[in-house]
Amino acid sequence: MEMKRSIEGLGLYDCNDCGHVNMFVEGFHDAMVLYAIALHEGMKNGYTKKNGTEITSHMWNRTFEGIAGQVSIDVNGDRVGDFSLMAMTNIEAGSYEMVANYFGKNKTFQLLPAFSSDHFTLERRQEVPEKEKEVENHSCGLGVSALTGVTVGAVLGAVILIAFYFFRKNYRITIQRRTRGEEPESMKHHQLREDSIRSNFSAA
């Protein structure tokens, strides 16, 4: 309402839909309210704003009224969201309507008058027994572990091969340089020995 009054006061533009606030603005607003509540409680208990762990703990397991309705945070710190399902109810006009609401707090659906069973089929998800869940999670874990092992092994093998190739190439270049550097010295000593032999023979 304050945003709407500000826009009207500035006379920027006429807006028929100004009562609806962008969902990202709503989320930011509600996050700031949640932080303010947690900070207030933390400071009341003697903690400072630098104690993030304490402030965060006051954000969890909490329900309050946000800008667009009730905001619920569960014991794990996850937001329990409410959602609305929209569908094109008039294909010729291209108009959309809300056909169902989902309430995360009690995990229930509310079907609205625009809902048509001809366009939607609701199926209740069957609960998987705990034993099957354990087997599924175990097999999934093994599959992920095996894939990770193969990937890491392949990468390490490739790195070792590349390192060996460059080491061998560098070693060969070093040997060739040393050989070229030593050849003139050996030729020089060989020439000196031949000269000394000739001088000895000539003196004799």
Automatic annotation (TrEMBL):
<dbReference type="InterPro" id="IPR001170">
    <property type="entry name" value="ANPR/GUC"/>
</dbReference>
<dbReference type="InterPro" id="IPR028082">
    <property type="entry name" value="Peripla_BP_I"/>
</dbReference>
<feature type="compositionally biased region" description="Basic and acidic residues">
    <location>
        <begin position="179"/>
        <end position="197"/>
    </location>
</feature>
<feature type="region of interest" description="Disordered">
    <location>
        <begin position="179"/>
        <end position="204"/>
    </location>
</feature>
<dbReference type="Pfam" id="PF01094">
    <property type="entry name" value="ANF_receptor"/>
</dbReference>
<protein>
    <recommendedName>
        <fullName>Receptor ligand binding region domain-containing protein</fullName>
    </recommendedName>
</protein>
<feature type="domain" description="Receptor ligand binding region">
    <location>
        <begin position="16"/>
        <end position="89"/>
    </location>
</feature>
<feature type="transmembrane region" description="Helical">
    <location>
        <begin position="142"/>
        <end position="167"/>
    </location>
</feature>
<keyword id="KW-0325">Glycoprotein</keyword>
<keyword id="KW-0812">Transmembrane</keyword>
<keyword id="KW-1133">Transmembrane helix</keyword>
<keyword id="KW-0472">Membrane</keyword>
<keyword id="KW-0732">Signal</keyword>
<dbReference type="InterPro" id="IPR052612">
    <property type="entry name" value="ANP_Clearance_Receptor"/>
</dbReference>
<keyword id="KW-0675">Receptor</keyword>
<dbReference type="InterPro" id="IPR001828">
    <property type="entry name" value="ANF_lig-bd_rcpt"/>
</dbReference>
